[in-house]
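INTERNAL AUDIT FORM
Audit reference: QA-55
Scope: verify that the stored structure record matches its stored sequence.
Auditor: D.O.
Record contents follow.
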Amino acid sequence: MLSLSLRPEIGCLKLGYLKLAIHRRTNREAFYGGRPICQEMRPYKSALQAAPLNLHPLATSIIGLGSDDIQTRPGYVFQAAPTITGIECHLITGTCGPPGPPPTFPPPMPTGLGMPMAALDWLTAGKPGRRFMLPREPATVMVNTFRVTSSEMRFKSCLVVAGLLALEASGAATSSPVTVGYYPTWKRQHMTNVDFSMYTHINVGFAVPRQDGSLSFDGDSFLSQLVSDFHGKGAKALISVGGWTGSNLFSGIAKNSAATDTLIRSIIDYVKKYNLDGVDIDWEYPGRLGNTCNVFDAQKDSPNFLALLQKLRQQLDATFGARKKLITLAVRVEPFDGPSGPMTDVSAFAKVVDWISLMAYDINGAWADTTGPNAPFKSEKGKGQQLSFVSAIDSWCKAKWPTSQMVAGFAFYGRSTQAMQDMTRDAKNQYQPQSKVVPLGDKEDASWADPCSGSSSNSGTWQWKHLRDQGVLNSPATAKSPWVRQWDPTSQTPWLFNSQTKTFISYDDPQSLEIKIKYAASKGLAGAMVWSMEMDTPDHELLKVVKQWPGNRQSR
């Protein structure tokens, strides 16, 4: 039995899911299982979950699931042979007849919640199979061709998600969640122990836009070899444009048509010259201040960015073929900003972008008044920034971005700060007063000069590999004296404290990563992103956890 689980991308709104099982041998036996999503549907739960459905012999594909009248017409709508207009089969009785009126009247209109994509999970012989993303319609995955859409249906006062699925061929799925790694060019000498084959996509950064839209990139001399190395290991290669210190001119470029055209030409030239698989744009941030010298326009940045991306998609498709090259974005934990704050509808961006990578880290740090988690799973009410891994997914979902086009971002580093008191006296509280002086981080840390202000400071960064090899952690879950490890049950993250130096470190470890990965997978996200590849141990202690994404057969 092959079990195909269709979770429309609006499942992030907790509306439920649909499941369809197709018999491998005959392809003519199916079971429908649904989870009731509002009070009115609960009486029909057992009938829906128990009802077998024998497919009509002429039915070649399923084009509709569900009904707004679950008592009288809880049916599938089938598209049959070309000479047959259609067949409708009753869900409970299994009887089939001519198609009736549409399941909803009037027919549901397309909305931002109904993007043409879905996340699919295969189970074979009861064992987890591979999960893959269908980014557009139609999509071909080896021997399988699927056409997937979503729509809304109303059942009394309840919003019902109806998944529309056409299954044209059967077989085993062959793709896995994406694993995206960032390759900072200035860390090239530290990449010797990185196994590129463990990544599906590698973003090399950063190319920095000049005022006229042309690109400055310090990796020109070795990019060809990198791309060849990545491709040889089965990973796709993208060039990442922008970054924290490279985003100061995006706003001006996006509002200037000539500069926009130059930027797009420059990106296409790089893709051509170096045989790249796409571009990753890391504008930090549209509509709000990132680095202190950045220029931004709260009114126009986001619409200008959309126009730029639409034009970039159009020209990439014209040059290389429709959707042959990727456009990905690195984004903050809230949607792009408009005049009134984060946008409430970013669905237009999703139509031209393959996925966004949620940078759900750097949430608390030395810039705050208190210590706190660098990358909390959940925030604690009234303490620290009220942003988190969970809130990031929810915020983008509510702004109508499909979860199947989201990639969860993970930090392979921690941040250290200087506490004002001995935090072990209140070991259950990781939010305690801290100094503005940033302590030196691991052995690679050094005083860093801000290109905007010119002021210098330590970064306070501790890469995971150095937490392990500099004697801070004896094992992934145990600290070496004088360090003490604590676990925060709300943020679901560990933290370390050294009473001798009053140094606090917040970071992610295998335990906290596993919690986030399971949550992201349950929400239908497309995979994981890592900043950055060289920060893991030589034996990939953290990446191995990331690769255990549910349904990923490429885990190792």
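Auditor finding: record pair retrieved intact. The first helix runs from residue 45 to 50.
Action required: none
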